[in-house]
Amino acid sequence: MPSADAKSPPPPRASKMHDIPVHTLHQLLAPITVRRENPKATFTNWGLSYTCRPLSVFVPETEHQCRLILELARREGKTVRTAGVGHSPSDLACTTEYMLRTEKLNKVIELNAEKRFVVAQAGIVLNDLHAVLAQHGLAMRNLGSISDQTLGGVVTTATHGTGLDFPVISSDVRALVILLADGSRVRCSRDERPELFMASLCGLGATGIILEVTLELEPAFLLKEVQENQRFDVVVGNLDSIARQAEHVRLWWFPQADVVRVSSSNRTNEPKSPVGTWLWHSIVGYHLLQFLLFVARYVPILNIWLGRFMAWLAGGKMVSVDDSHRIFNIDCKYPQYTTEWAVPYDRAQACLRDVRDWLEREFADPSGLRPHASFEIRFSAADDIWLSPSNGQLSCWIGVVQFKPYGLNVPYRELFARFEQIMIKYGGKPHWAKSHPLGPAELRRLYPRFDDFVRVLEAVDPQGIFRNPYVQRHIFGKEGAEFGPRVFKKLP
Ligand SMILES: Cc1cc2nc3c(=O)[nH]c(=O)nc-3n(C[C@H](O)[C@H](O)[C@H](O)COP(=O)(O)OP(=O)(O)OC[C@H]3O[C@@H](n4cnc5c(N)ncnc54)[C@H](O)[C@@H]3O)c2cc1C
Prior knowledge:
This protein has about 500 residues and is of the alpha+beta class. Helix content is about 30%, strand content about 25%.
């Protein structure tokens, strides 16, 4: 197993860093620098909805290089945005100044099968982590829909999976090693610098560069998933019993067809029996659907039929048994716009009925909205992470997606704006990685520890080195052209 920083020279002490002239810092960083003039410096998120061209992109392989980047930024009065692999469907990772990409800080440092934990560099992609864990009979307890993100990206956004007994993935973190704005390397946990720890678990990349994550694991397990279609009224009328019928329950609602696909997964000892044929999923489920989505850009009424087609494509009852991450993860298909909110669980039923009533009005109105969107509904346990949307509340996550066939734009803004108004009415909190309209005034009301979060940022990063436009806008309430929500919007 490769160890982190195996070949790097011992890092100079902070005082030595101050002595290095700026031009020497540039020289030292040259091998890992991609400058703005180089097209490779352009950073576009996976959803093809946001893009930016940083002044320089650095791809460090060692902690020492990370310190040099911070030293350079301090001297030049620049900000540094740490970025994973750009899977956030917003401008959360975007910047016009310095960007530090973590893709080469991706090693497993320590793995303890007996005590069931791993220490990994934050740039490791979850799929790579799963492969290492599997060799030692271990697995992550819960996952979201994909494993293409970095561990750091997952931790700083409180990425969630589903299950009423399963909190957001950051809850499985036992300790973090962070490089702070002044170049100091600190370790934090619930016992050591607990405030920095609670702020960093969903810290939006604003507390520092997360170098290492200690993650609690469980023995590798198989999941048995059962999927079947039910009517909306049946599902929402029995929401609590359905949400509790398995360890991990998630729902895909196709309002155009009045159908909810219910997925229920439990740990099992049954033999593996994965489902899915290449022909069906590749030819019909991917290529034909994409073409139809493309046609519907010009003939919006087709979207209603497309929603019904997607519900039909999902098929009848399906049972499969596979490695946990293969069941947790799904094919998210095409680039997309998306928004997602965590609504207090006890208000979810009323909230979902409100969304249904609104969509029925749209569909009945000849000039109403015609989304092809399906809605995803998931659950998470309460936690105590300061900015986790599940902080102090059992949550029902409600998300909506509009696909971009062949990467092309489709209408989504009016749809999302109306959807968000309903989420706000029911006390919903937006997913931090996804675009949302809330500023500090609203967020402060939703998050009892919001001001503590700001206090920690001001203490560990008084100059705001780690604050990009997203953080300035949503956390510090900065207004103006350079902080606006559409600064990094990807235009056609
Ligand atoms: C197809 C798809 C499916 C998804 N499914 C789910 C899901 O099921 N559940 C869910 O909750 N979310 C989901 N997400 C959202 C995703 O988990 C988050 O956006 C995650 O942050 C992406 O990780 P990344 O490595 O791409 O980070 P980026 O998008 O590159 O960065 C995200 C944030 O992490 C910070 N960051 C990254 N690395 C570090 C580091 N080492 N130190 C400090 N800060 C760092 C960045 O500064 C930024 O603030 C999904 C996204 C996509 C595109």
